[in-house]
């Protein structure tokens, strides 16, 4: 079971990654759907200043 503190920490790194992308002027984000990056992807999708481009992997 994941503790509440662990969940909060996971959210913190996701937000930090999103902010780092924004601070570097990233406006286009290509991504392959991935459970580990789910929150970062959600933040990018919700950000009107970013264009998101879903990609597929070789299995698809």
How many individual helices?
Answer: 2
Quick one: how many beta strands?
Answer: 2
The helix content, as a percent range, equals 40-55%
Strand content: 5-15%
Shape: globular
Gyration radius, rounded: 13 Å
> Which runs of at least 5 residues are low in confidence (pLDDT < 50)?
none
* Main β sheet profile: 2 strands, parallel
Structural class: alpha+beta
How much is the average pLDDT?
85
Within the largest sheet, what's the order of strands?
1-2
Helix/strand layout:
Elements: H1 4-23, E1 28-31, H2 38-46, E2 51-54
Parallel strand pairs: 1-2
Helix pairs in contact: 1-2
What report would you give on this structure?
The chain is an alpha+beta fold and 60 residues long. The chain has helices spanning 4-23, 38-46, and strands at 28-31, 51-54. Helix 1 (4-23) crosses helix 2. The longest helix is centred in the first third of the chain and has 20 residues, at 4-23. The model has no long low-confidence stretch (mean pLDDT 85).
What are the main properties of this structure?
alpha+beta, two-stranded parallel ribbon, 2 helices, 48% helix
Brief summary:
The chain is of the alpha+beta class and 60 residues long. The protein contains 2 helices and 2 strands; from the N terminus they run αβαβ.
């Amino acid at each position: 079971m994941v503790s509440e503190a662990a969940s909060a920490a996971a959210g913190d790194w996701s937000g930090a990654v999103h902010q780092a992308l924004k601070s570097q002027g990233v406006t286009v984000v290509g991504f392959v759907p991935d459970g580990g990056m789910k929150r970062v992807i959600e933040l990018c999708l919700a950000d009107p200043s970013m264009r998101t481009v879903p990609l597929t992997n070789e299995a698809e």
